Each structure stands twice: as C-alpha cells, then as structure tokens.
Predict the structure.
Amino acid sequence: MTRKKLPRGYAWPVTHSEMRDAIEPASAKIVDLTFGSSTTGDTPVIMVALWTAAQSRTYGGGVHPESVGFWVSVNPVRIERKQAARRALLEEGVPGMLAWMNGPLVAKEGWQATDHTRVWTFKDGKLKATDIK
C-alpha cells in the first residue's frame, strides 16, 4: 500500500482497512492498492481500476508475472464530501468495480490481452463509472 500526504482540506473517502475488507472477494486478482494524492477540483476521480495485460513491456520480451492483474487507486476528496463519497464508494463503487473485475476473468482472450482502465468520479453526490481507452 502506498499512502501520500494530502493537501489541506482533502481526505481519503475510505480507510485502507475499509477498502481491503470491501475488495476481499477479489484480493487475489489485485496486484496493488494505492491511496494517491491526485486532486482534480470539481470533478474528482475518486477511484481508478486498471487491468494490466500480459504484454511484453521491454524489447527483451517476457512478461513479469507480478505486473499482470488489477491495480486500484483511491484518490482524496474535499473533506466536506468525504462521508457522501465514502458511502457511494462502499455501496456502489466497489461492488461495481468487483463486477467489472470479474468480466475480464471470464472474457475472451482479446479483452484480456489489452490494458483497460475504468475511473469513478464523484460529482453532485453521484458516482459515475467511465471506461477510458
């Protein structure tokens, strides 16, 4: 786990232990869980999940087995939005992320062979998931 110092007025919407408990069903599939320090103003991205495919990342070929899987990052929110963001993440975001994570594991090889990213933004009390190409 990586945790960074936050700017004044920001807080993580969930604790490390809350997130670990929530992602327990998929913990074997998750390579890393980080708590970032990215603050994006009015449309904060509060959670990011990446699928890293088994692709050679160097000219020498070969894939490091620990690089394949899901990477999850939780970003801070304005402190006054913390409780609403926490509730949205735990009730909607994490279950949605777990469902998204199960897709690649049963998907065709074409999906598994490429990297994918999904981000969750929290604005006006609503959580929205978006796939990024």
